[in-house]
Amino acid sequence: MNLKGFEFRHIMVLDALFTECHVGRAAKILNLSQPAVSNALGWLRQHFDDPLLVRVGNALKLTPFAEDLRVPVRELVIAFRMTARARPHFDPREAEGKIRILMSHYEATLLLPEILKRIAHEAPNIEIDCLGINSDTNQFLRGEVDLLILNRDILHEEHGKESLFHDRLVCVGCAQAGWPDIMDRETYLAAKHIAPKMPDTKMPTSLNVISAIDTALNKAGIHRNIPATVPYQLIMELIRGTPLLATLPSALVNHSSTSGLRIFETPFDLGRIITGQQWHASAHNDARSKWLRQIVRDVVSDLHLPTEYCDTPEGSNPSTLGTD
Q1: Are 209 and 151 a contacting pair, CB within 8 Å?
Q2: How far, in Å, CA of 158 to CA of 113, rounded?
Q3: Residue range 296-321: mean pLDDT, rounded
């Protein structure tokens, strides 16, 4: 077969360019210089006799031919990574390498300490790279992230997923602020609120529990007066000594010190926040991925987080998504 100089490195360049639609960002992903990627793009344009990316306004867009190539190119890259990582069996005691998990502050606060302990105990030679919501979500689509642990409602439809636990929203205020015994609608709407500050992120804002709070409130037609936004982890401390009210997931509140605070049920039906885990479709039957998913399930079980509205173990595989 004469491929006229076409090599697998060209597939890697195509995947990065198709994902980012930006030469500089593609170069950063590939750990190459921008001129090197520009030269590779020029060679690929000549090879395919197609511009592949064209400028529309201030952005680069894929040509129709490039759109047709995008999925098979990504599948080739993912298959390559899975092949390079494959072993006849997976023994966590002997395993090496790095596991990458992406989660928001909410899930990390609740789950990450125990996940780290379990992995360190069962697989002492495995490195853990925990990514926050300011990370590039395309890393998961490229098969570079082993697991997402996020709000279930916004997990990708085309990849394996399962629900882990559910939570409800509660109100938190300073015990000295003169709140009524029961939080009513009028008091809630009249209050000044403190809310989590949205981080600077490349990820869609729907991919974190902060947005899930706002979504639940918006669905109920509730618009708060929010004079203060602060990092998530500071809210419980900053409420003390102020007349501000916070709306937070109950598990996060219970995980923190509530000394000097009062906890109220919300005066509205805000539904549930359901956290799920997701793995790439190509890793559905991968032994290492299965082991990691079970680690997370065991942590949820040991923490006694509520699971009544969640899937059965192993959740949805890529051929049955949407049934959970």
Answers
A1: yes
A2: 29
A3: 73
Distance (Å, whole) CA 286 – CA 24: 33
Q: Return d(Cα 186, Cα 293) in angstroms, integer.
A: 44
Q: What integer is the mean pLDDT of 248-264?
A: 92
Pick the residue with more confidence: 197 or 312? 197
Q: What is the pLDDT of residue 148?
A: 94
Residue ending a domain, among 32, 62, 85, is: 85
244 pLDDT above the threshold of 90: yes
Strand boundaries in the chain, DSSP class E: 53-56, 59-62, 97-103, 126-131, 147-151, 160-167, 169-174, 192-196, 225-230, 245-249, 261-265, 273-279
Looking at the structure, tell me whether residues 60 and 113 fall in a common domain. Answer: no
More confident residue, 37 or 144: 37
Residues 285 and 153 in one domain: yes
Mean pLDDT of 252-256: 89
Q: Are 250 and 154 in contact (CB under 8 A)?
A: no
Q: Are residues 174 and 162 in the same domain?
A: no
How close are the terminal C-alpha atoms of the chain, in Å? 45
316 within some domain: no
Residues of the domain holding 131: 97-166+274-302
pLDDT 10s digits, 139-186: 887 788 999 999 888 888 889 999 999 999 999 999 999 999 999 999
Residues 130 and 203 in one domain: no
Same domain, 186 and 209: yes
Asked if residue 206 belongs to a domain, the reply is yes
Opening angle at CA 43, ends 20 and 60, nearest 5: 30
Q: How far is the C-alpha of 101 from the C-alpha of 150, rounded, in Å?
A: 10
Q: What is the CATH number of the domain that holds 191?
A: 3.40.190.10
Q: Same domain for 15 and 150? A: no
User: How many domains does the structure of the chain reveal?
Assistant: 3
- Taking residue 212's Cβ as centre, other Cβ atoms within 10 Å add up to 27
Would you list the DSSP string of 203-250? S-GGGSHHHHHHHHHHHTT---EEEEEE-GGGHHHHHTTSS-EEEEEH
Structure confidence at residue 323 as a pLDDT band (50, 70, 90): very low
